[in-house]
Amino acid sequence: MANTTFNGAVRSENGFKKVTKSSTGAFTDNSTYSTNASVGGTLDVTGRSTLTGNTVATTAGTGITTGTGTVYAASVIKTGGIFHTKILIDLTGLASSGTGDIIGKAATANSHIGQITAAVNGTVLGGKLTCLEAPAGGDPDINLWYADEATGAEDAAITSLTNQVQMCDSGDLSLNSVISIPTPPAADKYIYMATGAATNADYTAGKILIEFFGYSA
User: Fold this and answer.
1) Which of 93, 157, 190, 210 could disulfide-link 68, Cβ–Cβ 3.0 to 4.6 Å?
2) What are phi and psi of 100, to 5 degrees?
3) Cα–Cα distance between 64 and 190 in angstroms, integer?
4) What was the pLDDT predicted at 36?
5) For the chain (length 217 residues), average pLDDT per consecutive 10?
6) How far apart are CA 189 and CA 117, in angstroms?
7) Which residues pair with 87 in a beta bridge?
């Protein structure tokens, strides 16, 4: 059956199913959607749900995404009035340099890790950084900052950017380190990783998860 467009609500008393049809004509239920009226119209989903539209306002800049072996992934989920932003990074292929310098692909501009906006991420109240694998090669002291512009380059001083603010002082990260982010990013700012000490080298390991928690102001 071809795609069908309805002008008006589509109603079903017994829920909806997402199915696949095999070459023999057999149907398999992938997901079942039903409404539980006893709990105020809650949507119950059976099966796997993939939310592909939940991304931060902008992805990381090319100074992050073009690193060899670097992994960057981000998502935002709003549950009730709470926004939960996650940024997952494998540092492999990025570089550190002098103290207080931006981390990114060596000598590459646009080394931010995303932009925070109130529309997508809510008004951020706070956050945390979790070390999933200890950094190796590059400097393990990784601090988070924000600034006005997206153009900051690896090896440039984070303080050379406009209206820059340090969000956390991590110290050397090790496996299972959890660092509070007491100064949340302001709306429309770009987020950067910057070194806390001088280590001029490429990262060969290191995985971190950055989380922000926001609300509808």
Assistant:
1) 93
2) 75, 15
3) 13
4) 59
5) 72 73 76 60 72 76 98 96 97 98 98 97 98 98 98 98 98 98 97 98 98 96
6) 7
7) 74, 210
- Six-digit token pair at 163? 């209206």
Q: Which residue type, as a one-letter code, is found at position 41? A: G
Which residue matches tokens 């398999």? 28
Q: Distances from the Cα of 92 to the Cαs of 54, 99, 136, 178, 212, in angstroms?
A: 25, 19, 9, 20, 23
Query: Both tokens of residue 7?
Result: 């002008």
Q: What is the CA radius of gyration of the chain?
A: 21
Helix segments in 22-139, DSSP class H: 62-65, 118-121
Q: Considering Cα of 16, then 22, then 23, then 25, what sign does the dihedral take?
A: negative
Within 10 A of 99 (CB to CB), how many other CB atoms are there? 14
Q: CB of 96 within 8 A of CB of 105?
A: no
Identify the bridge partners of residue 89 per DSSP, sorted by sequence position: 72, 208
Dmax (CA) for the chain in angstroms is 64
d(CA 209, CA 92): 14
Measured between alpha carbons, how far is 153 from 110 in angstroms, rounded to an integer?
Answer: 6
Q: Tell me the CA distances in angstroms from 143 to 70, 191, 209, one per residue in order.
A: 18, 11, 13
Task: From residue 45, give the alpha-carbon distance in Å to each of 36, 52, 153.
Answer: 11, 16, 44
Taking the model in full, what pTM does it have?
0.86
**DSSP letter assigned to residue 121:** H
CA distance 115 to 149: 10
Bridge-partner residues for 97, per DSSP?
none
Measured distance CA(136)–CA(143) in Å, rounded:
16
